[in-house]
Design a protein that fits this description.
alpha/beta, Rossmann fold, Arc Repressor Mutant, subunit A, 2 domains, 12 strands
Length: 225
């Protein structure tokens, strides 16, 4: 497994390296102290996961993430001192797979890396569009969604949210399970984020009033076929 860290504090890079060396010694770790160097590394090295700081000396980490998403679907974990909700939501909306606030526990970071890697290893039911209902189809190989045969542009978070519901079609999925499937984070932290993303996903699926994504108040959500 190959990991790229884009972080301007060498001490943090060294500490992450030690944590992986102790717990996951076969990982190949590459690092960049600037955003531009990080983009170059990802383009040239094809890593399995990227850890990205937001406060970089040359360009903003959010802009690095936007650039990465123009050519790569590599899982990205943001590592930042910024803990405001708008920063977390912004990172997830433009393509981050997870968001960890500094200071952080290094064992937690390793667990989050393993989690995003598991989520990225999607085993499709088949290598073409799979009908979900009369209107919706999903190609799990390329993470493509069609509504009435028209492509639907979903963020990575929205796509994982949809898959979490679809794979349990016609069954209620508990709020905390959806959150774990979508963000791999503590359920208590993301309940409001879940509501926001459900609302946005419904809008993109033209599901208003809801007939596909149903809220079972106090329990969870269900995708109705």
């Amino acid at each position: 497994m190959k990991l790229v860290i884009i972080e301007d504090e060498q001490s943090i890079i060294d500490a992450i390296g030690l944590a992986f060396e102790f717990r996951w010694p076969d990982v190949i770790l590459l690092s960049a102290l600037t955003g531009l160097e990080g983009i170059r590394l990802v383009k040239n090295e094809f890593p399995d996961v990227v850890i990205l700081d937001i406060n970089l000396p040359d360009i903003n980490g959010f802009d690095v993430l936007k650039e990465l998403r123009t050519f790569s679907k590599v899982p990205v974990i943001i590592l930042s001192v910024r803990s405001e909700d708008q920063d977390v939501l912004r990172g997830l909306e433009i393509g981050a797979d997870d968001y960890i606030v500094k200071p952080f526990n290094y064992l937690t970071l390793l667990a989050r890396v393993k989690s995003v890697l598991r989520r990225s290893e999607v085993t499709p039911l088949q290598t073409s569009l799979v009908p979900v209902n009369a209107r919706l189809k999903i190609d799990y190989t390329v993470q493509k969604v069609l509504l009435d045969d028209v492509p639907v542009k979903l963020t990575p978070v929205e796509y994982r949210l949809l898959v979490s519901l679809v794979k349990n079609k016609d069954r209620v999925v508990a709020y905390d399970q959806i959150i774990r499937d979508t963000w791999a984070s503590s359920p208590s932290d993301d309940t409001e984020n879940l509501r926001i993303h459900i609302r946005r996903l419904r809008a993109k699926l033209h599901d208003n009033p809801p007939v596909m994504i149903i809220n079972k108040r106090g329990s969870g959500y269900m995708f109705k076929s």
